[in-house]
């Protein structure tokens, strides 16, 4: 089971969109995927159609109310893609974790063993804040961090801080964590700035930058309204092709990294 956080401390970089669409592409290929929504905004939860919603939530698991992780997993209308809900249901868990005297940073890591072994991939959608207790827990629990960026000054500058955070976490408590890679979202190929970054990013970060980038496409915005990954909503659109190519790169890189 590969556990991957989709994270960037900058907002608006396409984290949730990418988590859903990479997970959806893997599910389309017949892989079993679990998407954990660890964002209190809960957009990964609200952007998919949940067909089975248990009463228990991840908060109940974290607070020791008798539920286990397998009991809070929601089925979706996308075959082989399941979700653990985020959003407001996480608020009690956050309050509980903040009151813990010891081990507040590793609550999630201690729960990962409860995830059923049928899942080949677990994607964790994160909030845009490196300092949040949820994100610290995520970083202590995952093997890989996938970093989406947009072609703007703040997003481009932010990836370096993200990489530094990964290095610090590796040294301080999770030696298994690695940056899986950086990719660009909402790219406008007609923009000179976007074209420049497309050309330069692989040279700037040869071991991290993915060659695939996600083109700006209206179907990416329409798919959440239909509560589907874009590969199901518009399988022939540019964004579907881009996320499929990015998924190929991700799988190849994970094989190389081990």
Task: Describe the protein in words.
This protein has 258 residues and is an alpha/beta fold. Helix content is 43%, strand content 16%. Strands 3-4-5-2-6-1-7-8 form an 8-stranded mixed sheet, with helices on both faces. Helix 1 packs across helix 11. The longest helix is centred in the middle third of the chain and has 20 residues, at 153-172. The termini are close together. The model has no long low-confidence stretch (mean pLDDT 94).
Overall shape: it is globular
Low-confidence stretches: none
Query: In total, how many beta strands?
Result: 8
Mean pLDDT across residues: 94
Q: Work out the helix count.
A: 11
End-to-end CA span: 12 Å
Topology:
Layout: E1 2-6, H1 15-28, E2 33-37, H2 43-46, E3 50-52, H3 58-62, E4 73-76, E5 81-84, H4 91-99, H5 107-111, E6 121-125, H6 133-141, E7 144-150, H7 153-172, E8 178-185, H8 192-204, H9 218-225, H10 230-233, H11 238-257
Parallel strand pairs: 1-6, 1-7, 2-5, 2-6, 7-8
Antiparallel strand pairs: 3-4, 4-5
Question: What descriptive keywords fit this protein?
Answer:
258 residues, alpha/beta, eight-stranded mixed sheet
Could you provide a short overview of the structure?
With 258 residues, this protein is of the alpha/beta class. It is built from eleven helices and eight strands.
